């Protein structure tokens, strides 16, 4: 009997400079049946941005946001259709429940890159679906070097990011998996293996419950 792979909500967190953005991009390039979570926002589309709502859920990679009116956004929140949301500079941003649930029910996994607070919130709401991975830098000194190489922050901002990183790293034991990102390609392979294992495990659990 062929076991159909089930979709999982793959949640990645790391401190700033930990590598989750690069790792996420590479995972999406190499993984089949994995899409990036697309947020919903009330802000106006910028030049060149593509509205995710114009695409079927299996073809969403590379799309930017689901753009909606503020009225629509609040209606969805009141209906419980937003897993998480926040207001940033006069605009609302959120994670639409329907997008994630449709993909998972079709055997497509969803990649959500998010901070530890958002990760814990998703874990409470979708405990059975979430597979969480915390990405550690090899050391705090290496993290400092990575932040300095960006040339986007001054010395005081880097110190603030390092202080925030210490707090984020202290939450790592709450995640399902912790990896050390000392090599991007190795980290991508490690998370790919985790994704494969967790999808297979959930598929076997479902088959067992169905009496297969």
TrEMBL record:
Name the PROSITE patterns on file: GUANYLATE_KINASE_2
- Which CDD domains does the annotation name? GMPK
* Protein name as catalogued: guanylate kinase
Superkingdom, natural source: Eukaryota
What molecular functions are annotated in GO for this chain? ATP binding; GMP kinase activity
Q: Which GO terms describe its cellular component?
A: cytosol
Family of the protein in this entry:
Belongs to the guanylate kinase family.
Q: Which PANTHER family match?
A: GUANYLATE KINASE, GUANYLATE KINASE-RELATED
Domain Guanylate kinase-like span(s) in chain numbering: 7-196
Write down the InterPro entries for this protein, in alphabetical order. GK/Ca_channel_bsu, Guanylate_kin-like_dom, Guanylate_kinase, P-loop_NTPase
The record's keywords, sorted A to Z, are: ATP-binding, Kinase, Nucleotide-binding, Transferase
Tell me which EC number(s) this protein carries: 2.7.4.8
Query: Which SUPFAM superfamilies does the UniProt record give?
Result: P-loop containing nucleoside triphosphate hydrolases
A Pfam match: Guanylate_kin
The answer to whether keyword S-adenosyl-L-methionine applies is: no
State if Kinase is listed as a keyword.
Answer: yes
